[in-house]
Every structure is written in C-alpha cells, then in structure tokens.
Amino acid sequence: MAPAKKRNVSSKANAKKIKIDFEGIVERILKSRKHANDVFDVLEFLQSEKEKDVICAVDACCKLFCTLLKRKDLFIGKLPGEDEAIKGEHSPDEKYKIFMRHRYNNCVEILLEHLHHETHEVKESALCCLMKFAAEQGLHPLEDLDWSEYFSFPRELIQAVVHNILSQSLDNSLLISRFQEFLEMDDIRYYVMSFIRDNVATVMNKSKGAVLPVYQSNVFTLMLNINMPSQETELTNFMVKQETKHEDWKAAKLHDHKRAFERMWLGFLKYKLPNSMYKKILVVLHDSILPHMSKPTLMIDFLTAAYDVGGAISLLALNGLFVLIHQHNLDYPDFYKKLYNLLEPSVFHVKYKARFFHLANLFLSSSHLPVYLVAAFAKRLARLALTAPPTALLMVLPFIYNLIRRHPSCRVLIHKPSSEDELLEDPYVMEEVDPALCHALESSLWEIKTLQKHYHPDVAKAAMLINTPMTEQEDDISEVLEITSYELMERDLKPTESKSFPLEFETAAHLLEGRGEVLGRHFCLA
Amino acid sequence: MGKAPKKKNLADKVRKAKAATEIKNNPFEVKINRKKFDVLGRKSKHDVGLPGVSRSKAIIKRKETLLKEYKQKNKSNKFIDRRLGEYDAKMAPEDKILQRFAIERQRAHGKRDVYNLNEEEELTHYGQSLAEIEKFNDTVGSDDESEEKGLLSAELTASHFGGGGGLLRKKTSGGYQEDEQGGQKIKSRQELIEELIQKSKQEKRERQVQKEEAQELTEKLDQDWKSIQALMVKKTPKAENVDKPEEKAKPEEYDMMVRELGFEMKAQPSEKMKSPEELAKEEKEKLQKLEADRLRRMMGDEGGDGVQSQVHMSADDLNDGFVLDKHDKKTLAYQDGKWNIEEETEDDKEEEGESEKEEGSEAEGENEEDDDDDDEDDVEEEGEEGSGEDEDGHSDLESEQESENEENDEEEEASSSRQQQQQQTLNREELKARQEAAKAELPYTFAAPESYEDLKDLLHGHTPDNQRLIVARTQKCNHPSLAAGNKLKLQKLVGFLMEYMGELATRSPPELGTIDKLIPELYALCQMFPEAAGKSMQSILGDAAHSMEEAVEVKGHAAFPTLDMLVYLKVTALLFPTSDFRHPVTTPALLFISLTLTKCLVRSLQDLTSGLVLCCLAVEYVSLSKRFLPELINFLSGTLHLAVQDKASAGCMVVPPFRLSGKYSDLLVLSNSESCSSWRKENLPLSATQQLELKSDLNKDHYRLNCLSTCLDLVKRCCLLYKDLTSFTHIFQPIRTLLSKHLSSHMLPSPLQELHSEILEAISSASVTHTRLVFEKKKPIPLKLFTPKIVEVLDYGKKRGSTREEREKERLKHKYKKEFKGALREIRKDSRFLAREKLSEVMNRDAERKRKVKELLGSLATQEGEWKALKRKKRK
C-alpha cells in the first residue's frame, strides 16, 4: 500500500522503486478485486513521458492482462458501454469484468499509439506486448461465438498492429525486422498478408496514385520479411491451434497462403513505385517472389513494363522475364532485339553487370539462334569493349569467344581470308537498332585487334587469342563475372619469390619530370 | 595333431623342390620368353615361364574356390569355421595357440570337474608327463646330460687319468655299445677336441710371431730415430753416412732451395683498389670527421692544429684518447652582456667550405645556404646544444670560473698571432653571426630512424634542402657495407620516406617543394633497395585500391584520391619503368588510375583537376609503350562534354562516371563568353586538387579554360599515341562529334582553337580502312624425314615431352587396361573351367547310367539265358 502512495511524492527520483511498485500493483490487482482501481495508475504510467517508465508499465500491463485473459476475468462477448454497464443490471462479478475489459481496450489503444513512438525500445516492447495479447486472445477469445462454426483468431488486434506498423511518416524497418519473428507463425503470416493488402489498397487509394516513399518502403520491408513455406507439411507453427476443423482453416493451407501472397504483391505493384524501389523489387523478384506465387504469369505485365523502362531497370527485369520464359512458357516477341538494344556503354559500369552477363550468356547459349544475330551481338560487344574497364574486358572477351565457338559460322568475324588484300571500312552500323540490318557479319572484330594493345597484360593476352584458331573448349565466364579491380590488382601485388622489381634507369631529379613531362607542362608545384 | 601336418609339409617341400628342379630342367615344360634386346645388368623375372606349372596351379586354385562355390551353389547349409582367430590376421600365431589352449582348458574344467583335485590334470615338462618322468624309467636321460655337459671333462678325464689313445678308443667303442644313437656324435666330438687343441697351438704360435715382429720393428725404429737424431744435431754418425748417401743428398737440395727462396726478393704489395665498402667507410669517416669538426667549431674551438700545445693530463686520464675537454667546453654564460661562446675565425670558415666541397655532389651550394638561410630554422637545436653545454660544464666547475678570463685572453692572443691584424678588426657582432651560422649547420652523421616518428622528428623544422641533405647523410652514414643491420635500417627508411612524402602532400598547403627536393634521395635509395621500395609502394597502392573498392561497393562510386595518392602515382612512374608489359608496381598503379577514372564522380572543379592530373599521369605511363587505355579517352571525352553548353542536342555518348545531364554536368561551361579574350594559359597548381578558391566569375572562367586547354592538349597527345590502332576512328568518334558539333572552335580562345583544329585534323586524317582479320599464318608442318631424329636422353625409362600429370594419367590408363585385360582373361578361364567341370559331370553321369543299363541288360540277358537254358533242358 505504502509504496503505491509514494508514487506521487518521488516518482522520478527512483525508477527502481517504481519497477517494484509495478510488480506490487499487478500482484495486488490480481490478488483481490478490491484493488482494481490501481489499474489506472499503471495506465497513467503507460502514457508517461519517460521511456523507462513506459517500458516498465508495458511489462506490467502485459503481465496483468495476460493473466486476466487466462483467468477469463475479462468480459466476453459484445461489450456494453461503461456507463451503461454501471447503470444496467449486472452482477458485481460481471461489472468487474466489463470494467476490466474496458481497461484492456484502453491499454491496447495506448500500446498501438506507442508503435509510433520515437524510441525503438518503446516500440519494440509495445509490439511484443501486443503480440502476447494476441496469442492469449487466440487461446481465450473475447468474442462470444460458436467456436465450432468460426475459427478463433484475434483478427482486429493483428489488423490494428499491421496498420500501425506501416507508418506513413516513420521508417519502421527495425521494428519490422522484429516483427518478422512473429511472421514465422503460419496463421499470423496468413492474416498479415491479407491485412497488408487491405491496408495498401486503402492508403494508396487515399493518396490517389502519388508515390509515398516511406510508406512504400515500410510495406516493402514487411513483405520482404515474409518467408513463405515451400511445402504444405511445413505449416505446423501456429499461434492459435483450432480445436475443431483445423484442416479446413485457410491459414493451414499452402494454396491459400500462396493466393494471399500473390494478391498482396499484385496489390502492391499495381501502384506507382519510386525508382529505387523498382530496382529493389526486381533484384529479389526472381527468387523470393515468383516461386511463391500460385500463378507467376500474373507478373508478366509488371515485368514487361519494367523491361521497357530501359537502363538498369531493364537489365534487372531480364531475370524475372527469364524465369517466366524458361519455366512458364512465356512468349516474348522481339526479345533478342530488345536485349541487343540494352547493350550500351553503361552496361559495363552498372552494379548488376555480373547478373546481366550471366543471363545474356544463358540467352545466347542456344545453338538455334540465327548467325546474323550472334554476329551482331559479338560485334556490338566488341565495339563497346573499347570503352570498358579491364575487369569488364576480362569477362567480355571470353564471352565473345564463346559466341564464336558456339556458332562456327561466326568465325568469319575473326578469320576471313580473301585473295586480295582489300582495304575496307567497317561496314557495321552501330546506330542500327535491328540486329538483322547492322551488317555485323560483313565486318571483322578489329576492336579486339585494338585491345591487343591494352595496357593491362591479362587483357592484352586475352585479346591475342584471336590471332590463332581457337580451341573447341568454351571458356567458363562464371569465374570472371564478378572480378573486381582490386582482385585484379592483387594478382600483381601478391608476393612471389621470383618477382623482381625492375627499376627506372633514368635518374629522377624532380617530381614533375620524366616521360614526356606531360604533368610538368600543365601543372606546377603549388 | 600339430605335428603331423608339419611333417607332411616338410615332405611336400622336399618333393616339390625336387619336382621343381625337374620341371625347370625339363625343356618340354619350359617356355622361354624371347627378349628383344639384351640389356647388360638387367635381371628380368620373366625370361622363363612354366606354363604347365602355372596352369596346374590355376586349376588347383579354381578347384579350391570356384568349384567349391559351384558345388555349394544351390545349397543353403553352410560350413562355418569356428576356430578361434582362424581368420584374424592381426593375431600372432602364439597368441592364437595360447587362447585356444585356454579355451580348451576352460571347456575341460566343466561342472563335473569341480571336485576334481588335480586328478585328471596332467603336469608336463617339455611335453612329457611329469608322472612318467618321476618313474625314472629312462636312465638314458642322465647319461645324455653328462655327455652333453661334460664334453671337455670326458676328454680331460681321459687325459688326466692317463687313459691314453687306447683307452680313449675303448671308451668310444664302449659308448658305441652303450648308446644306439650317439655313435657319430662321439666321433665328431673327438675331432672337435683335436681341432680345438690345434687351434690353441696355432694361436700361440701366431702370438709369438707377432711379438717377435713387434720387437724387430721397435729395434728398427730405434735405429731410425738415431739417424734422425744425428741429422737434427747436424752430426751424422759415420756408419749411417756410409749407409745412406742418397738420402742425405735430397734434404740438402731442398734446404738450398729453401734458402734461395728465403733470400729472393719479395714482391712488394701495391696499393689495393678500394672496394665500394671501403669507399663507403671512408666517406663515412670523412663525414664523421666533418661532424666532429663542426661540433668543435660550434663550441668555439679553433682549428686545433698546435694552438693548444700544452695538453694538460688529468690524473684520471686513461690515456685512451678520450679527452674530457676542459679547454674545449665552457659553461654558457654571459660575458659583458653577451654570450660567451668563442668566436670563429676566418680560417675555420674556409676550411669548412673546402671540406664541404670535397663531399661532392650532394653538398653543392649547401655552404651558402647553411650560412645564410638556416639560422632561424635551428633555434631548437641551438637550445639543445646549449643545454648540452650546461651539462658538460658541471665537470669543470671550479677551474672554469678562474680560467675564463684568461682563456679568452689566450685565445685572442693565439688568433692574433696567426691571423695578424685584419682579424682583430672584425667586431664582436660579426663574429657572433658566424658562430650562429656554424651552430645552425647540420650535423654530419645521423642515426637511421627506427620508426616513422623518428624520421619526422629528424626532418621537422628543416628547409627542404636541408631535409634532403639529412636524408642523404643518413643514407651515407648507414651504408649497408658499414654494419650488418644497416641494410634493414635503410630499407625501412625507404618506407618511411614514402610515408613522409604522403604526409607532406596531405598537409595544407601541401609541401610539394619538399617532396620535389626529396625525389633524388628516394630514387637513390630505391636503386639500392628495389625490393623494399617496390613492396612499400605496392602496399600503398593496395591499401588505396582496397579502400576505394569498399567505397564503390557501398555507394557505387568513390571520391577522387587525395593529393598524396597522386604524388605516389607520379613517384611510381619516376622510380619504376612504366613501359613494362607486366610490372609488380606499375601495373597495379595503372589499374588504380583506371579505377579512379571510372569510379570517381566529378562533382567540382577540384575533382576535375584531380582527374586531369590522373589523365596526365596515365598519358605519361603509356607514352613509351603506346598502350591503349580506354578509361583515359572516356574521361577526356567526358570532360569535353562538361564544356558543352546545350546538352540537349543529341548525338553525344558519354561513359560513366559522366552523365548526359545532371547537377554537375555544366562544370566547364563558361559563365561569360567575354572572359575568353582575357585568358592566358597558366599552369594549374597541384594543390587545386584539394582546395580551390576562385573568387570572381572571371577567375573561375579562366580556371575552366585552363582545364579545357589541358584536356585538349591531352586529347591531342592521345591522338598521336593511338594513331596506329585499328579502331582509332571508333575510339575517337565521340570526341570528334563533340568537338565538331557541340564545341565548335569559334567559342574558344585562339590558342585553343588551334589545338581544336589540330585534333580534328589528326582524327580525320587517320585511315579508316583495314584489311580483314585473318589468323596468323601457321608454320607449315615439315615433311617427315627418314633420318633418325637424335635426341639426347638424360633420364632413361621416362617418357618425355609431357607434363607430370599427363604421364600420371597415361600410366593409370595403361594400368587400367592391363587390369581389365587380366580380369577378362580370368573370367574366360573361369567359365571354361566351369564348362569343363559340367561336361565331366554330365559324362560321369552318362557313364554311370550306361554302366547301370549295361548291368541291367546283362542281368536280364543272363536271366533270359538261364530261362532259355532251363527251357531247353525241360524240352530235352
């Protein structure tokens, strides 16, 4: 008793005592109904300014209401208004229950508000508490229904949680990653997916198609955190176990999960996305979204739209498209023409270079491609190689060689003996969009000849290969796809015994001198 | 049980051996494998084959295995061998027997034996029952024993008791009668004894002979010794003299020779050529001497030649040359309101000048600088030395006080005596200035810095020229030939020096002048230790590239390297050859340049300046080898694109890191086209890569034009460099369109217009036509010649012309083939054997049946015959 009163005197002086307070209060409330009014104290603390107090209060609430839920000390069924209840004819026992139920509702409201709190700790503890309530509610439902007909699940509560997590102003990625723990449970996942869809639909409709970067990134993070099961037998982890007809429950069926997943993503992708989000989605699309959809072909529209955007986004869309073409029989007209036009100088400089060339290698591995097409690709790549960094060159040269090996009729590109030594201009038309009209087959790969004078010894050696007939064995380009400049440097930096350091013989006297004095002509020491 | 098979085995062996030799000698059994070549000294196992034997062996083996299997084929019961450890190869046979025995005993020790008190258990000794032995039936045993043990005693008894030959013989004959088995043994024993006696006698004789010989030898030795003794005292006994006249002649000749040689003129050693080590040592000594001189002068001591003639010897003097110089040093004190440091004379100065000239190249002109410039720089050094003087002063406190005045007088006297009158005209101020100059002069020896901090301390507060001198002197004082650890020290110095240069470049403002001065020293050090220099440069480049790569991974782009990296890259070009195809330092450096040119975004004029410096460096790097550097062209065309005013017009192609449009794509666009007229080409300062402050728009425009002119000049150089590349036109296509369409010359100041037109001309003049690509012509394969190709074979029996892996592969292949064939052959033989067995089985069965049928028929026939006979009888 005494400490409870003390609160008013020295609440901020000793936080520790307060913690003890809470335990005492909770115990008292639970022990006898006399002290029921102490619950207001706890709720007051829950709204306090100090984070420590709030967190302690959240813990206390969690303990208190969880026990009450277990004891079924909360009113079950349609809740009458507080005033009505006091006036109405209820037994004291029922009155108490109604009172407590109202307090519980207040508490949940406050906790949901706390999901928008500035500090992460508060958010996190509020979230955990809410999820504990949800778990208890699932076991001891507060609705008065015939449970043989319905499936018990705290829908409202979870919906409110999802609604509050997907904030439109705050980046909640930390909280969402905490939430992922709960998404491991299959029923929660199922319902969350459908709630996300509803939420996205309402929010985006309200914004009338405008881009909401924070909100969308929150949604995206949450959706990305959903780990879909791959087999029906994996669906075993439930928060609420239905006593009757568990098998008929939608949350227990993989097919329904997939449907929900698919509808969620399609609902999300329907709206306009920021560019960075576009890229992020495309990066993960092929291995974490497409396999879990019940009908992956529904993604065609999205992917073709992305493929037409151009630039890096097109490159990324390629991967998803490939999955669709390869596994779902998608027929894509002018696919190769578009691929040909994706080859720009920037292709060697973008982040997704390795992925692009891996796929391009797959696409061009077919032996049924027409020769003109392969030649056009080879020639264009060679032309672009004139602006490529050495890391890209080490990859693109074997790539071109592989093309020529696969299609021996392309050998004319590097070997076309003619009777007289005719001199000719390069007939290849770089600007031509259609690979059929670019006259690549009539040209030769002079660019590779140029690259034989490249400054990097490895590149120069690789380019030297066109001087002699090539071996039949294809080069494995997967090793060089992701080579970095630093790795390339390390080849020379690695200490070996035989390495000697030849020296410059011209005596150096000044910083700006030496080798044509280019630096000295344009710069001065200052 | 155990013995029987053994015996059999023995017998078998004997028989077999017999059979084997028989077979081997039988020409019909032997198949001789013809050898192609007879190689001397080679033993081959397979020159003779015994087909019959091996065939019968194989058949026997098959009978034991295959046939048994065949017979057991459809049988479900099985023979299980439960013998203990029968198939345990690990068990030693003794163990096996022991364990089996133990088990047997255990089994025997059954229930019924519980009350059995050793009744059935038979004790044995050497396999014989003890009970039987105890009966003493066999008296032979004891006899045997005496025979065996008393071999000699029997003989002895015979001799001792005077048995004589007859008795002995009688005994033997008795033995004959007594013993059925031992007759031969006794005979042999006798022989043995005789042999023994003979042996002992022989030994005795031999010993005697040896003794005699030894005596003879010693006698001989004594005689020899006498003769030698005579020689030694130069008194040859007459007898010996007569005996060995030849022997005497020889030593005399030799002696004469020796004497002659002794008197001969010896070649005088000439002055040796000095090795580099010695030179270095000398140099070091010189420097040390100079240093000592300098120190003394700084202290105010005079030339030191006979001025202080009377040297006072202290009682503590160890006479080791160490002078606790009472006369040299004095406490720092004021005298007449001035420092009491002694004056320096004109002579000293001159001497110093000469000595420094001797020092050679590195000391050129240091003289004046030392005297003039450096006075202010060495304030702290002065302080230090001042304190040093203080400490020294403690030693001679008492004498100092008194002698101070007179000493000064003395000095003045001495100097006046030497220098005559003009010296005295120099007033005190002048003298003092000179003193300071001497003090400010650099020390001549330096310890090599142990850490980077040491080097920094060493060089701190010196002018660039002095820093260079310090490094040079450090290098000389620590020449690797002077001490063992010096090499390491100097190698470290290389790294420290490079680090120091980097630090100089990162200071603001960068001290590039100092770096410039230090370059020759670094070059010299690098020539001495290419390895150390290369390694430290490699680590610098590696670290820089690593951090840049990390930045690129995180952000997708990186910031331009700071000035120190630019300096390092330039230094790399100065120290190492850039034209090598592959060089452990310059190749990574070039890669680093390319990395920066592709990954660093140009966001300001500073960045652009850095980029242009890198481009200059790149051009320098490839100027000799004319290698193609795509990033360079990309960067230059991107830079030109920055100067284009309206980016909207199509036809431009830029490569990352540049963008077609954006915030930073107008960096080089002039704010006011008027500023062209007032522009004059100026060299850009290197520090502009770090910070650039341009106040007015005009200044900015001028800076832009400077950048543009640098860029155009670089483009021109590139044009000349890459003129011969096959794809020249395609490489320069973007630049061409930029220059001709978007950056037309009328907008540029006249010097740039010139460059502009030159570039365009160079690009358009290049040939656009090429011959088609063909493979290099292969060398025609020469016709096979009939003359044998003679190759020197160094390792016999090894296949040549292939790598180790290939040989291994070949060997495995061969082995596999052999095994495969062998297995196939075995299988065939097995099936043939089985077929034969089956056939013989069938034949046996048939024969049996035939026999039975015959029997039956026979019995029937007899029956019939009997019956007929009976009938006939009846009829009769």
Automatic annotation (TrEMBL), chain A:
Cellular compartment(s): Nucleus membrane
Cellular component, GO, one term: nuclear membrane
Database matches in InterPro entries: ARM-type_fold, CCAAT-binding_factor, Noc4
Keyword Nuclease among UniProt keywords: no
Keywords: Membrane, Transmembrane, Transmembrane helix
Biological process annotations from GO: ribosome biogenesis
Keyword Acyltransferase carried by entry: no
Sections of the chain in a coiled coil: none
Residue stretches spanning the membrane: 302-325, 356-377, 384-404
Name this protein carries in UniProt: Nucleolar complex associated 4 homolog
Upper lineage: Eukaryota, Metazoa, Chordata, Craniata, Vertebrata
UniProtKB/TrEMBL annotation, chain B:
Keywords carried by this UniProt record: Nucleus, Ribosome biogenesis, rRNA processing
Comp. bias (Basic and acidic residues): 188-219, 265-300
InterPro entries recorded: Nop14
Protein name: NOP14 nucleolar protein homolog (yeast)
Originating organism: Poecilia formosa (Amazon molly)
Job of this protein: Involved in nucleolar processing of pre-18S ribosomal RNA. Has a role in the nuclear export of 40S pre-ribosomal subunit to the cytoplasm.
Family designation: Belongs to the NOP14 family.
Record's subcellular location: Nucleus, Nucleolus
Region ranges (Disordered): 140-219, 265-314, 330-434
